[in-house]
Amino acid sequence: MTTVAAKPATMAQALQRAMRDAMAEDPSVHVLGEDVGALGGVFRITDGLAKEFGEDRCTDTPLAEAGILGTAVGMAMYGLRPVVEMQFDAFAYPAFEQLISHVARMRNRTRGSMAMPLVVRVPYGGGIGGVEHHSDSSEAYYMATPGLQVVTPATVEDAYGLLRAAIASDDPVVFLEPKRLYWSKSSWSPQAPTEVPPIGKAVVRRPGRSATLITYGPSVPVCLEAAEAATAEGWDLEVVDLRSLVPFDDETVCASVRRTGRAVVVHESTGFGGPGGEIAARVTERCFHHLEAPVLRVAGFDIPYPPPMLEKHHLPGVDRVLDAVARLQWEAGS
Amino acid sequence: MTVQELPGAGAAAYRPTPPPAWRPRTDPAPLLPDPEPYRVLGTDAPLDRDLMLRLYAELIRGRRYNAQATALTKQGRLAVYPSSTGQEACEVAAALVLQDQDWLFPSYRDTLAAVARGLDPVQALTLLRGDWHTGYDPHEHRIAPLCTPLATQLPHAVGLAHAARLKGDDVVALAMVGDGGTSEGDFHEALNFAAVWQAPVVFLVQNNGFAISVPLAKQTAAPSLAHKAVGYGMPGRLVDGNDAAAVHEVLADAVARARRGGGPTLIEAVTYRIEAHTNADDATRYRVDAEVEAWRAHDPIRILEAELTSRGFLDDDAKRAAAEAAETMAAELRERMNADAELDPMDLFAHVYAERTAQLREQEAQLRAELAAHEDEEAEGNR
């Protein structure tokens, strides 16, 4: 029986609901991974799916990420739509070869005759006090691979809408779930899910006039908070939530930067070789004559993810964002 | 610290009774391979005449195909060709043992298996000639793309077979891998998943002696590659990979077993790679001629031909017909491969995603403009 999620709903509940609705609508949707069955996943995102749809539709696999994704490839070859759960960000690395060598390029190498309609769900990022290998922001690795779509929700509504879109997509999607937002809440109703635009559309979360914060996933709430705090300094910041890193929405991002003339990219991932470099370059190439200051980056430090007791120093917080915004008071010769 | 070393533990140390899940669930004995590779040719076993003649004709065609493809490499028509000369019995048996609805998962050396299954010989060479990657629709012949990374196609075979069984379809997947590929993690994971799920899969390892230059003794310490099956809880079979009748029989048993829900089987076919790994390899650096010559004496075509002739199955007419059919195939292949492939550069962007992204549309426009400019320059030069 369908039960009504208690309001307010969490992102975790929205993700679970998205899989359940997709499975109910389409018998070809299968969920597989380690602990996704009886346990409902270590974050309970697959809670109840095995009970409702049976173990053939929500399958506890042996503990082997390459095997999980590799068998999902074969399932997709036979017409199923597998939704794979990687338990934590850094646990997904053994599956990299399958992802890079097969999932990402199967459509291309078969000249369109074999699609890979599968979703790889990866709980990612820090801020939950996880020990080593439980807090990586691995999005840059995925972004660097043509053929993959890379998506990360920041709100409960988007978590539902984007996961439904990812499962419906005929191309593979790396679905990055910001695990510290799993318990974020919203008055979202599972009975009347909000319409979410297709994968590849960014959204302006907060309109503003004096600078744009370009961000995604776990850093979206940080930027919204920073934007509120910045009003005291006379800054009216616009916050753009990318939602999709690949495909990248140049249009929304550049329209915003052209309006505001200043931009800061904010993410948890490392700065060097991280997504911010690519985003800053794209914005500079397209909006150079509109820019009043260099595009700045606020990122995690270029270090292996730190131990839980030190992660607060690593993760970009409101103060670090505000410091960057202050540096946007850049003038020629200064 | 072991239980015995725990403080206070006396001679009668506490030994908990293992819960039922700890007990071995399978008697390993029936899973163990025979100590010697299984052989049919040279024994008194009855042979199916029609099947043997079909195997023979395909072996002759396959040998000719290998020779032609190797020649095309020397002419620069193929970027690379990993020859399966000497291994034709495995290639042909793997193709012939499957029904139409079954799937074949070949590695890069298994072009011949794809051709023997009915794939157009030119299409089968698409990857190796550098014309895109997969020159055929995998669904049309139920042949997965030739796989270059080692053993990564094995979990695909498991997943496909598992999916087919979930849908209630009568489909068996046959996955091919070399001896070197058995060292890869994907080999282990595929076998483990297949056994746990009891997926209708057959794993065929062609042990041809070398992973490029590394001999089997440096690849594994296992008694045989077929022994690896026991650890996963599936039967392992060891077969003479140059005995086409034996390979076909062992594969047919395993396929039938998978088809009736008996689960996966691991088969090691002991064979030999007569040619070098590819044209980029110098096999004289790591093996001696005497070894190659010994294996030539145990050539799959030679031993099948001798057996079929002595049993009166094969006469000169049949031999001539097989040779002529092979020659016709080779001539046609040569002629078609001598034509330059026509490639559309715009296809670079066509199949990255179902729909081109805005970024790819921009790059496509860039390349189109470059090509137009180049054409203009050429027209200018010709004037």
Structural description of this entry:
The complex is a heterodimer of chains A (334) and B (383). Chain A is 34% helix and 19% strand. Chain A has 334 residues and is an alpha/beta fold. Chain A has a seven-stranded mixed beta sheet, with helices on both faces. Chain A is globular. The mean pLDDT of chain A is 95. With 383 residues, chain B is an alpha/beta fold. Chain B is 44% helix and 8% strand. At the A-B interface, α3, α4 and α5 of A face α7 and α8 of B.
Task: Find the biggest chain interface.
Answer: A-B, 47 and 41 residues
Major sheet of chain A = 7 strands, mixed
Largest sheet of chain B: 5 strands, parallel
Q: In which order are the strands of the major sheet of chain B placed?
A: 1-2-3-7-6
Number of strands of chain B: 7
Please state the oligomeric state of the protein chains shown.
heterodimer
Strands of the biggest beta sheet of chain A: in what spatial order?
A: 3-2-4-5-7-6-12
Which helices and strands occur, and which strands form pairs?
The complex is a heterodimer of chains A (334) and B (383).
Chain A: E1 9-10, H1 11-25, E2 29-33, H2 49-53, E3 58-60, H3 65-77, E4 81-85, H4 96-103, H5 106-109, E5 119-124, H6 139-143, E6 149-151, H7 156-168, E7 173-178, E8 185-186, E9 203-206, E10 211-215, H8 219-230, E11 237-241, E12 244-246, H9 250-260, E13 263-270, H10 275-287, E14 296-300, H11 311-314, H12 318-327
Parallel strand pairs in A: 2-3, 2-4, 4-5, 5-7, 6-7, 10-11, 10-13, 13-14
Antiparallel strand pairs in A: 1-8, 6-12, 9-11
Helix pairs in contact in A: 1-7, 3-4, 8-12, 9-10
Chain B: H1 49-74, H2 88-96, E1 103-105, H3 111-116, H4 121-124, H5 126-129, H6 138-141, H7 153-166, E2 173-178, H8 185-197, E3 201-207, E4 210-211, E5 214-215, H9 228-232, E6 236-240, H10 244-259, E7 265-270, H11 289-297, H12 300-310, H13 316-338, H14 358-382
Parallel strand pairs in B: 1-2, 2-3, 3-7, 6-7
Antiparallel strand pairs in B: 4-5
Helix pairs in contact in B: 1-2, 1-12, 1-13, 2-10, 7-8
